[in-house]
UniProtKB/TrEMBL annotation:
GO biological process annotation, one example: sulfate assimilation
UniProt keyword Transferase present: yes
Keyword annotations: ATP-binding, Nucleotide-binding, Nucleotidyltransferase, Transferase
GO terms assigned for molecular function: ATP binding; sulfate adenylyltransferase (ATP) activity
Listed name of the protein: Sulfate adenylyltransferase subunit 2
Length: 302
């Protein structure tokens, strides 16, 4: 089963590698969802270890929205080129034609069409039967309900009351045509585990995680970094330069930064040890309606 390693991080690593190899044995056409964030970076690193010295035997899938930070796009293309792994970029063309954006149409509608519907489209288009995701149980309440293998019906819907038992690392991958499984090999990791593992393994991450002086404005309790000219500045708002970094990354109008002096991994780990709030407090889409994340997951969000 798992390697008899003495450190906690090595045990987590062994569990994740075991899960990835199980998926390759259970499914015909898996894919790894790649959001470009720190969890995706760790998940990709674990995939490389899982199949070394061979190549990662499945593609990466990035559900693009056109609203990611510029540094995220640069990092995504750099990783795809240097890792020599197939990268599939999927954009919901219907949403693109509607010219949807988070400012005019609201975070909920924008996320539903550009992310949830985009993901369902891509899974159907390429006939993926399993999709790795970097979600962790410590991130948010509904994610704590997830199993390692999370069953989705032919409409990509998730029902927390119909999850399959997982005893002694035995996972049930039986599905019918059109159904799929979302797989979460980092479920048992915490935010602190992720940072310590990135430090231990020297994993490359998007520079936005490190503190630097960047242009921001305060809106609805969030510290929004102004990443391009599409920002709709209100009459009472002023863009200021502040020392900030990100605990989590998504579409820039919906992702809040934190004020921080942590410019390296050691400082980030120290900061993470003392923090009392979830990193998801920086995601506006988690608060647009009651039980927002669970509702999105029931509808097909990853």
């Amino acid at each position: 089963m798992f390697k008899n390693n003495t450190t906690y991080l090595r045990q987590l690593e062994s569990e994740s590698i075991y899960i990835m190899r199980e998926v390759m044995a259970d499914f015909r056409n898996p894919v790894m969802l790649y959001s470009i964030g720190k969890d995706s970076s760790v998940m990709l690193h674990l995939a490389k270890k899982s199949f070394y010295p061979g190549r990662v035997p499945f593609p990466l899938l990035h559900i693009d929205t056109g609203w990611k930070f510029k540094e995220m796009y640069m990092f995504r293309d750099y990783i795809a080129n240097t890792s020599k792994i197939e990268l599939i970029v999927h954009l919901n063309e219907k949403g693109k034609l509607l010219d949807l954006n988070p400012f005019q149409h609201g975070g909920s509608k924008y996320t539903d069409i550009m992310k949830t519907e985009g993901l369902k489209e891509a899974i159907n288009k390429y006939h993926f039967d399993a999709a790795f995701g970097g979600a962790r149980r410590d991130e948010e309440q509904s994610r704590s309900k997830e199993r390692i293998y999370s069953f989705r019906d032919s409409y990509h819907q998730w029902d927390p009351k119909k999850q399959r038992p997982e005893l002694w690392w035995n996972y049930n991958g039986k599905i019918n045509k059109g159904e799929n499984i979302r797989v979460f090999p980092l479920s048992n990791w915490t935010e602190l585990d992720i940072w310590q593992y990135i430090f231990l393994e020297k994993i490359e991450i998007v520079p936005l995680y490190f503190a630097a002086v960047r242009p921001v404005l305060e809106r609805d309790g969030l510290l929004i970094m102004v990443d391009d000219k599409r920002i709709n500045i209100r009459s009472n708002e002023v863009i200021k330069n502040k020392m900030i970094r990100f605990r989590t990354l998504g579409c820039w109008p919906l992702t809040s930064a934190i004020e921080s002096e942590a410019t390296n991994l050691e400082d980030i780990i120290k900061e993470t040890v003392t923090v009392k709030t979830s990193e998801r407090t920086g995601r506006a889409i988690d608060y647009d309606q009651k039980s927002s994340m669970e509702l999105k997951k029931r509808q097909g969000y990853f």
